[in-house]
Amino acid sequence: MTFTIQHNDPASQARTGTLTTDHGTIQTPIFMPVGTAGTVKAVHQRELETDINADIILGNTYHLYLRPGLDVIQHAGGLHGFNGWKRPILTDSGGYQVYSLSNTRKIKEEGVTFKSHIDGSKHTFTPEGVMDIQRTIGADIMMAFDECTPYPCDYAYAKQSMDMTHRWLDRCIRRFDETEGHYGYNQYLFPIVQGSTYPDLRRESAAIIAGKERAGNAIGGLAVGEPAEEMYKTIDLVNEILPRHKPRYLMGVGTPANILEAIALGVDMFDCVMPTRNGRHGLLFTTEGIMNMKNEKWSRDFSPIDAGLGGYASTFYTKAYVRHLYKADELLAGQIGSLQNLTFYLWLVRQARAHIEAGDFVSWKNEMVKRLMVRL
Questions:
Q1: Per residue in 34-93, pLDDT tens?
Q2: Angle between helix 127-137 and 155-178 (nearest 10)
Q3: Tens digits of per-residue pLDDT, 152-209?
Q4: Mean pLDDT rounded to a whole number for the chain
Q5: Residue 75 contacts by C-beta under 8 Å, 6 or more apart in sequence?
Q6: Phi/psi-derived region of residue 365, left when phi > 0, alpha when psi is between -120 and 50, beta in every other case
Q7: How far is Cα 14 from Cα 127, in angstroms, rounded to an integer?
Q8: Which terminal CB of the chain, N or C, has fewer other CB atoms within 10 Å?
Q9: Chain centroid offset of residue 167 CA
Q10: Cα angle, residue 87 at apex, residues 276 and 19 outer, rounded to 5°
Q11: Catalytic site residue 92?
């Protein structure tokens, strides 16, 4: 994998780059649609490729391990063969699911024992096992196994968790380096910075992760309830330490404003369920602001959803029609909303890229942060 920085913004830490994998090239900054169980909810692969034009999507180790299971995925030739996606895939290691299953899991040095949310069966994830699972899934980018701490988090626990995440990382690296992929193409491992919102812990974790000399690095444990300003301070602190010549991935973030501010702080890669989850429930992101499509005000508005965005869903369907679909609980509503929101998110990062190249990113970003978070 190669990562080439092409432009640096003169007024911020924002940059554009090209990340090359065996399954294709990723133009950064990039937003990665979340396909937790091997599918981006309510969106066809053709729409991902042609309408949204996603460079890369996500899968999830925890969910794919449980269903359909590794045997099915391996017989299909990996996740690419199973779901028909030809471009790059990144898999989350399951660390966040461990965090979210706090009532049904037990964390020990060896790994995490948890109960399936599907049938209650008991399973154990170890750093080595998670590497093996991701080898079988066949993701281009694999994430190290970590613990995501909650917010707020006691300092002693945050440090204990961070130290264990670093020990788990060493085990992940050993297993990754002693194994090979199953499908004839290269896979790459990204470590994850932890440490809650404590500056000294984040500095320590970033330095340790940077020292592992992996293909890229991720920032985890944010967007879990902390104030936005605290998140931005943590990102800024970490990115002072993470190497500039490698891609930086901010996990699970976030709103359009979060993404733009993080780009200004030097982040290259993003993912979040927000666009598809909100799209299924009638909250649409547009180039003019945020629309709740269930509001009465749209019932006789026969203008397109978002003429400024372009694309099929945004220009073909009217606000009145889409509101009707949501009120009638039609499945098409969630499909249209997800398509609109993902198209918008990819448009947003590509606009950011264009303005970084033009040298006016900060002034554009400041204007867009205000505009895009307005409720219409």
A1: 999 999 999 999 999 999 999 999 999 999 999 999 999 999 999 999 999 999 999 999
A2: 50
A3: 999 999 999 999 999 999 999 999 999 999 999 999 999 999 999 999 999 999 999 9
A4: 96
A5: none
A6: alpha
A7: 33
A8: C
A9: 24
A10: 100
A11: yes
Would you call the peptide bond into 10 cis, given omega within 30 degrees of 0 as the criterion? no
User: In this structure, are strands 57-60 and 89-92 parallel, antiparallel, or unpaired?
Assistant: parallel
| CA distances to 95, 196, 223 from 135, in Å | 16, 29, 28
Active-site choice (92, 146, 268, 306): 92
Query: β-pairing, 217-219 with 192-193?
Result: parallel
Q: How are beta strands 269-271 and 248-250 bridged, if at all? A: parallel
3-state SS of the chain is CEEEEEEECCCCCCEEEEEEECCEEEEECEEECECCCCCCCCCCHHHHHHHHCCCCEEEEHHHHHHCCCHHHHHHCCCHHHHHCCCCCEEEECCHHHHHHCCCCEEECCCCEEEECCCCCCEEEECHHHHHHHHHHHCCCEEECCCCCCCCCCCHHHHHHHHHHHHHHHHHHHHHHHHCCCCCCCCCEEECEECCCCCHHHHHHHHHHHHCCCCCCEEECCCCCCCCHHHHHHHHHHHHCCCCCCCCEEECCECCHHHHHHHHHCCCCEEECCHHHHHHHCCEEEECCEEEECCCHHHCCCCCECCCCCCCHHHHHCEHHHHHHHHHCCCHHHHHHHHHHHHHHHHHHHHHHHHHHHHCCHHHHHHHHHHHHCCEC
**Residue 315 Cα to chain centre, angstroms:** 27
Closest by CA to 344, choosing from 265, 220, 255, is 255
* Half-sphere CA count of 121, side-chain side, radius 13 A: 6
How far apart are the C-alpha atoms of 63 and 59, rounded to whole Å?
8
- Give the residue among 241, 146, 242 at the shortest CA–CA distance from 196: 146
Length of the chain: 376
